[in-house]
Amino acid sequence: MIADFFWDIATSNVVLIAILLIAVGAFVVAHTPRIVERFWPQAFAFSKAAALVQVAAWALLMFLVGFRVADERAETKQLKNDLAFTELQIENAKATAQDAERLKADAQEKAKEAEDKLNDYRTRFGDSPEAVCAFTPDDLKRLRNLGLPKRR
Closest Cα partner for 102 from 138, 94, 33? Predict the structure, then answer.
């Protein structure tokens, strides 16, 4: 958490611009001694140190820019992975919804078939007094005997 905060600040635009300005200033002091001596004579004494500062500033700038680019690439890769996972979840949800619609249609078809059979039964036997009990006493006795175990 603190490391992320540090790298966010270290690779911010303000810090990178400040390091760039230091590198450019050190370059000017180190490589244009006559101009620096003319406009800023106190800085001429530091021209050798400015060359070292220039190299260090450019190295630090390149390191921080590289770190920022690598960090943004990693974040982009993570976002792509998250997007792909979300798209996969959406596809799975669509497939599940299609399966649910198919199952619902099958259930409605079976319910319609059962309702048709019930309506057919009602039209065939609904008002008939024989429909109450169409079995004869002999039929009932035969059915009872089917369920009883045989005695030896």
Answer: 94
**Which pTM does this prediction carry?**
0.54
Q: Count how many domains the chain has.
A: 1
* Structural domain harbouring 96: 2-146
Tens of pLDDT, residues 22-39: 999 999 888 887 787 788
Rounded to an integer, what is the distance from CA 31 to the centroid of its chain?
53
31-76 pLDDT, tens per residue?
Answer: 887 787 788 777 777 888 888 999 999 999 999 999 999 989 999 9
Question: Comparing C-alpha atoms, which of 6, 1, 8 is closest to residue 72?
Answer: 8
**Separation of alpha carbons 29 and 33, rounded Å:** 6
Asked if residue 19 is part of any domain, the answer here is yes
Which run of H or E residues covers position 75?
helix 47-125
| Residue 151 included in any domain | no
